[in-house]
Specification:
The protein is an all-alpha fold. The protein is 77% helix and 1% strand. The protein has a two-stranded antiparallel ribbon.
Length: 339
């Protein structure tokens, strides 16, 4: 029992270490440089919103990226689901919960279309997603005569950009994803495919079915993210020329952070912890007056650092295993000599 408690405590500490250190670093740095207010008041509300919004996008991208499917249609799916769901909710004059369910359902439907197109055509996912991204952008542009969606002033609908609604929302999403990933056949099959696709397929796992389900779940996450975005800004304009691809650029850092702490936490929780860390970075840089271009440079450097670590983490594991075996051999030799 004590060993289990120790393991759980260790997992919690290592999972929260990166965001905790990031928060303390910027809190001290901002106070020392005359930029108070980091992580409190309105800044805390912004951090929570950014964590939830970018976390949902990162979760959607994570579902396919870790299976070798880079989906360039993530941004266009988010935009299209938001425009369609927002206008439908506006016409129906429904509540905030119904608005959320509508955008979620439309996002899941778009994800289903993406998944079916991918498995039917059998083309590389990058090629399929680029084509679908242009199609989704065109549909979003044509719908409502290129006006997008405007819900400014609809306070009964736009409730997911503030606490505690957005906190409750992300807790529910994470709980569902953890259950699906850890305790269902879908999650077991997905983990098996991620670990070794050929072996998993050879033992009877349906890779195409699992891929379609991943696209559906990703679409649902993007629908929810669009609902959160619309709650913050009140409007969404259509995108063209693959400009929607900018929406998923913020998803890479949370995913790489999740890769670094994945052994200590469930994958969805690790991705969200990465999103929280990124929100601390963004808020800290903004509080210190750093320009958007400078923030992008620093964020990309951090992404590169985590990518290098993730790609070479096996080296550290091999060194630790070699050290443990060497110490065990020395101990055994000393024991024999003592006899």
């Amino acid at each position: 029992m004590s060993r289990k408690i120790t393991k759980i405590s260790k997992n919690i500490i290592f999972s929260l270490a990166i965001p905790a250190v990031t928060y303390v670093f910027f809190r001290v740095l901002c106070e020392a440089t005359g930029h108070p207010g980091f992580g409190v008041g309105s800044d805390l509300q912004t951090i929570i919103y950014t964590s939830v919004y970018s976390g949902l996008i990162a979760l959607a991208m994570f579902l396919n990226l870790t299976s070798g499917r880079l989906d360039f249609s993530i941004g266009s799916t988010l935009v299209l689901a938001t425009i369609l769901g927002g206008n439908i909710a506006k016409e129906l004059r429904c509540s905030g919960i119904v608005f959320l369910l509508i955008t979620l359902a439309i996002g899941a439907l778009i994800g289903l279309v993406s998944g079916l197109v991918y498995v039917i055509l059998g083309l590389p996912p990058m090629v399929v997603s680029l084509g679908l991204a242009m199609i989704y952008e065109a549909i979003g542009f044509i719908f409502n005569k290129a006006k997008g969606v405007k819900l400014i002033g609809k306070s009964d609908l736009l409730i997911y950009a503030r606490a505690p609604e957005n906190i409750i929302l992300i807790i529910i999403v994470l709980a569902i994803l953890v259950f699906l990933m850890e305790y269902t056949r879908f999650g077991y099959n997905r983990n098996a495919l991620v670990s070794g696709q050929k072996i998993a397929v050879d033992v009877g796992i349906n890779e195409k079915k699992n891929a379609v389900l991943c696209y559906v779940l990703a679409g649902a996450m993007l629908g929810i993210a669009g609902c959160v975005y619309l709650s913050k800004y009140g409007m969404m304009t259509p995108e063209t020329g693959l400009s929607s691809s900018s929406y998923f650029m913020s998803a890479f850092l949370p995913i790489f952070i999740a890769g670094a702490i994945g052994r200590y936490s469930s994958a969805p929780i690790a991705v969200f912890i990465g999103a929280v860390t990124q929100a601390f970075l963004t808020s800290g840089f903004a509080r210190m007056g750093m320009s958007n271009s400078a923030q992008a440079i620093v964020n990309n450097i951090i992404v590169l650092a985590f990518l290098i670590y993730s790609s070479n983490s096996y080296i550290f594991l091999e060194q630790r295993m070699f050290k443990e075996k060497l110490e065990a051999a020395k101990a055994a030799r000393m024991k024999r000599q003592a006899k």
